[in-house]
Amino acid sequence: MDRAQKEQLVDELGQIFESSGVVVVAHYVGLTVAEMQDLRARARNAGGAVRVAKNRLAKIALEGKPCASIADLLTGMTVLTYSEDPVAAAKVAQDFAKENQKFVILGGAMGENALDVAGVESVSKMPSREELISTIAGMLGAPASNIAGAIGAPASNIASILSTIEDKAA
Fold it and tell me: Which Pfam families match (predicted)?
């Protein structure tokens, strides 16, 4: 890898560290190519990505970024799982780690907040952005449907009373 490629990689990693809602760092010693492809596919389906990069270049890219605290975790064979959604990458990494002992989560960062292994696990248990939006939308829609039901109920009661009176009169 020549100097220009290294500079380009550092720029790409810098953009990843700056724009990601969460970055999870893990060791992947002993994972097969098929297992890594499975991890990448899971991350892609969740709206995230997986990146293996040289630790030295990743540390350079971390300088001055909000998640610079993860630089200490970058030792040995590390893989970065990241996403804009603050929960997606943590969920993918945590689920994959449960199924595969060779994938060991070291920690991560959520913005400026450093996460240890327990922190990554806690983040993975939080609802995703889409789940939160659907919950809020459901809560906002509930009062409107209750009002519509309350407004519509008296009219149906009046209609049934009128039909009962009409039946008696006939």
Answer: Ribosomal_L10 (PF00466)
Residue 65 identity (one-letter amino acid) = K
Domain extents in the chain: 3-126, 127-170
Assessment of whether the complete model's pTM goes beyond 0.70: yes
- Strands (E) in 33-119, as ranges, are 48-51, 78-83, 104-110, 113-115
- Collapsing DSSP to helix, strand or coil, 27 comes out as strand
Structure token pair of residue 169 = 């009169």
* Alpha-carbon span 134 to 106, nearest angstrom: 32
Strand arrangement, sheet containing 22-27 = 48-51, 78-83, 22-27, 104-110, 113-115
CA dihedral 44, 48, 52, 55 (to 10 degrees): 180
Q: In sequence order, what E strands does 28-129 have?
A: 48-51, 78-83, 104-110, 113-115
Question: Residue 108 and residue 22: Cα distance in Å, rounded?
Answer: 7
Please, what CATH class does the domain formed by 3-126 belong to?
Answer: alpha beta
pLDDT in tens, 75-103: 999 999 999 888 889 999 999 999 999 99
User: Residue 146: how many CB atoms within 10 A of its CB?
Assistant: 10
> How many residues are given for the chain?
170
